[in-house]
Write a structure and sequence with these properties.
With about 220 residues, the chain is mainly alpha-helical. It contains 9 helices and 3 strands.
Length: about 220
């Protein structure tokens, strides 16, 4: 999975914990309603409690965590309206990230995007649905990192809010239609058209939002 900070300088311990928590929330490894203890997270990540405490504070400020008496930090669940607003915000940020990728991308970055797209399509063809959300993220951030590390980091913070229990990739038709969206985005990248790339990514995020609305959570 692509790390949006991979091409930049080494992460501070707080940034490392923050990005790892964001990713595990986005990937569904840490689910809404889960209580997080600083000491447990510190031990699991191999750091002291201080960077974990700072990461918790930043995630609380972003709205991903909440503090309650006698419970400590809890991963926040989202209302349907908040989920709708999240996708609207994501469509703007990620559309911008895609347009910037067109304007700044080097050949090696485009090769990484093509490879990530192929990996995702291979997994769809093989019916390897457990890997699809991870490979989807890898493709998206291969695109965003090609343009702006700063904007990619903002996108990463928004992905931490996506409800992982709404797994749209388990449906074969959904997976294929989302892959078709990716193909249109990559076509625009290859043509060097930032306007069509931005529009295609924006439409893709909103398309995924519509699919999520129609996908019930697993029992």
């Amino acid at each position: 999975m692509t790390d949006p900070t991979a091409s930049g300088p080494p992460l501070s311990k707080t940034a490392y914990v923050l990005e790892r928590l964001r990713r595990e929330i986005a990937d569904g490894l840490i689910k809404p309603g889960t209580s997080l203890r600083q000491t447990d997270v510190a031990k699991r990540y191999g750091v002291s409690p201080t960077p974990v405490r700072e990461a918790f504070r930043l995630l609380e400020a972003e709205g991903a965590l909440k503090y309650e008496s006698h419970r400590g930090a809890t991963v926040k669940d989202m209302s349907p309206q908040e989920i709708e607003d999240l996708h609207l915000l994501r469509s703007e940020v990620e559309g911008l990230a895609t347009a910037l990728a067109v304007e700044r991308m080097e050949d090696a970055a485009l090769d990484r995007i093509r490879a990530a797209h192929q990996d995702l399509n291979d997994a769809i063809e093989a019916g390897d649905e457990s890997r699809l959300p991870v490979l989807n993220r890898a493709l998206h951030f291969a695109i965003y990192e090609a343009g702006s590390s700063l904007v990619a980091l903002q996108a990463a913070s928004l992905w931490a809010f996506v409800p992982p229990r709404m797994t749209i990739w388990k449906d074969e038709k959904n997976a294929q239609s989302l892959s078709d969206d990716h193909r249109r985005i990559i076509d625009a990248l290859e043509r060097g058209d930032p306007y069509d790339a931005r529009r295609s990514m924006t439409e893709h995020i909103l398309h995924a939002a519509r699919l999520r609305r129609n996908t019930p959570p697993p029992a």
